[in-house]
């Protein structure tokens, strides 16, 4: 059994990046941009309404404040400030999730923040603090979605927050189990057949090939298919079909 998630609502104003409507027919969890790397109030409202209508879980995809860089630029944000910004983003999304008759069900960092909290304990603690601060409006502590073995999940577990391990079918891995940086030309797996095979391997066997070809272990309850790649919705449908054929049930983790 595995959850299928995608990054959605990553547009701004008249500019649109992801095919939200098509992807919300495939995935079981939606990582909704909360306005700091992408997204705006109307987009957040629309995606939450569609997700609620289709029974898709709504997650807050929180980021550094970096609209110009799509949240992918390294930043040094003071921990207290970062914690407040995480809580702010979750709260903003909760308004629209509640208006749609649903709720924010989990939190996932985006881009540079996601990679930073794999190894940076201080920034991981700030993210966890932000999630805890949002608990009063979220019916209790929200699960954190992140990379297995990351400092983020370790810190979250240390304070009693639920954690969910995540893997990526369309991203390259290092031998250490971390994601290959986006600046590397081989960071993204573009071949659809390879993405499908990797998704099945992760979900069924708990393994994926690292950049050098060596298989590494990955334990994941959720599988991410990026929504900003060409043909993302069609590929997501093919991944879901391949998982079903391999005997893997696709089901939300919350």
Automatic annotation (TrEMBL):
CDD domains, alphabetized: LamB_YcsF_like
Catalytic reaction annotation: 5-oxo-L-proline + ATP + 2 H2O = L-glutamate + ADP + phosphate + H(+)
GO BP terms in the entry: carbohydrate metabolic process
GO molecular function, one term: ATP binding
InterPro entries, sorted: Glyco_hydro/deAcase_b/a-brl, LamB/YcsF/PxpA-like
Keywords: ATP-binding, Hydrolase, Nucleotide-binding
Pfam families: LamB_YcsF
Range of residues in the leader sequence: none
SUPFAM superfamilies reported for this sequence: Glycoside hydrolase/deacetylase (SSF88713)
Coiled coil feature spans: none
Keyword ATP-binding appears in the UniProt entry: yes
The protein's Enzyme Commission number: 3.5.2.9
Keyword Mitochondrion: no
Top EC class, one word: hydrolase
Assembly with partners or alone: Forms a complex composed of PxpA, PxpB and PxpC.
NCBIfam families hit by this protein: PRK05406.1-3 (NF003814), PRK05406.1-5 (NF003816)
UniProt family annotation: Belongs to the LamB/PxpA family.
Function: Catalyzes the cleavage of 5-oxoproline to form L-glutamate coupled to the hydrolysis of ATP to ADP and inorganic phosphate.
Protein name: 5-oxoprolinase subunit A
Organism: Kitasatospora griseola (Streptomyces griseolosporeus)
């Amino acid at each position: 059994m595995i959850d299928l998630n995608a990054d959605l609502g990553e547009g701004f104003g008249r500019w649109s990046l992801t095919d939200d409507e098509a992807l919300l027919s495939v995935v079981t969890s939606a990582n909704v941009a909360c306005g700091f790397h992408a997204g705006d109030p109307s987009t957040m409202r629309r995606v939450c309404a569609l997700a609620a209508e289709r029974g898709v879980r709504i997650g807050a995809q929180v980021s550094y404040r970096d609209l110009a860089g799509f949240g992918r630029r390294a930043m040094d944000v003071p921990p207290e400030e970062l914690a407040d910004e995480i809580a702010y983003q979750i709260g903003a999304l909760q308004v629209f999730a509640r208006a749609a008759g649903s709720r924010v069900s989990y939190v996932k960092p985006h881009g540079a923040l996601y990679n930073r909290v794999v190894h940076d304990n201080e920034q991981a603690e700030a993210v966890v603090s932000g999630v805890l601060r949002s608990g009063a409006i979220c019916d209790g502590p929200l699960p954190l979605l992140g990379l297995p073995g990351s400092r983020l999940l370790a810190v979250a577990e240390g304070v009693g927050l639920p954690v969910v391990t995540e893997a990526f079918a369309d991203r390259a891995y290092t031998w250490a189990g971390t994601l290959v940086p986006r600046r590397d030309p081989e960071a993204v797996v573009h071949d659809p057949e390879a993405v499908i095979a990797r998704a099945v391997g992760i979900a069924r066997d708990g393994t994926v090939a690292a950049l050098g070809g060596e298989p590494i272990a990955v334990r994941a309850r959720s599988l991410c298919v990026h929504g900003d790649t060409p043909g993302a919705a069609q590929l997501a449908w093919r991944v879901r079909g391949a998982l079903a054929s391999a005997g893997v049930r696709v089901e939300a983790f919350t």
